[in-house]
Write a structure and sequence with these properties.
This protein has about 180 residues and is an alpha+beta fold. The chain has a domain of about 90 residues: OB fold (Dihydrolipoamide Acetyltransferase, E2P) (Beta Barrel), CATH 2.40.50. A seven-stranded antiparallel β-sheet has the order 2-1-5-4-3-7-6. Strands 8-9-10 form a three-stranded antiparallel β-sheet. The longest helix has 17 residues. It is globular. This is LytTR family transcriptional regulator. GO terms for molecular function: DNA binding; phosphorelay response regulator activity.
Length: about 180
């Protein structure tokens, strides 16, 4: 199973020039084998390795939410893969998740999402925003030490100057891990 599609690898390599191009994958089919197992060899724990482990353990993270424009809570929720999420925005005591397919309201706190998604490329950039660094197309500096993250869907989010140091550290950490 390949966890990263070519487009995400290209995007990562553009944001992170020292990104290693993939990892070695060996698959063996043995019809006589009754004990299926997965061995993972790694030199250091990276987000991709953590995702592989989560998938094998069937702990693959998904976020549940309902379309933001629905006022009636009928209990129906949609499961969304974190790779599809551009950013999360906390507005009027409600948390919204922005994807390419729409906006969804999720019933978690921003702090809970930050903890859940830290290994999936999400970092806090302001009091009310978490962004997915794998969806960033471009980073542009602005006045007053602000940086704007431009996404491939055309939207932008400001990296608040009080979160800029943490944001830069997270990017450096991800460069080392990826």
């Amino acid at each position: 199973m390949i966890l990263q599609d070519t487009w995400n690898m290209l995007r990562i390599s553009l944001l992170m020039p020292d990104y290693k191009k993939g990892m070695k994958l060996n698959l063996f089919e043995d019809k006589n084998n009754v004990d299926e197992h997965v061995d993972v060899y790694f030199s250091n724990m990276r987000p991709q390795i953590k995702q592989i482990i989560d998938i094998v353990k069937s702990d693959r993270l998904s976020l549940s939410g309902r379309p933001a424009d629905e006022d009636i809570d009928d209990g129906e929720e949609i499961l969304i893969d974190p790779k599809e999420v551009y950013y999360l925005d906390y507005v009027d005591r409600k948390l919204f998740m922005y994807t390419g397919n729409g906006v969804y309201r999720i019933m978690k706190t921003l702090a809970e999402c930050e903890e859940l998604l830290c290994n999936y490329g999400f970092v806090r950039v302001s009091k009310s925003n978490l962004i997915n660094i794998f969806k960033i197309k471009q980073l542009k500096p602005d006045l007053n030490m602000k940086v704007y993250a431009y996404f491939d869907n055309g939207e932008r989010i400001c990296v608040n100057r009080s979160y800029k140091k943490e944001f830069d550290q997270y990017l450096q950490k991800m460069r080392r891990m990826v």
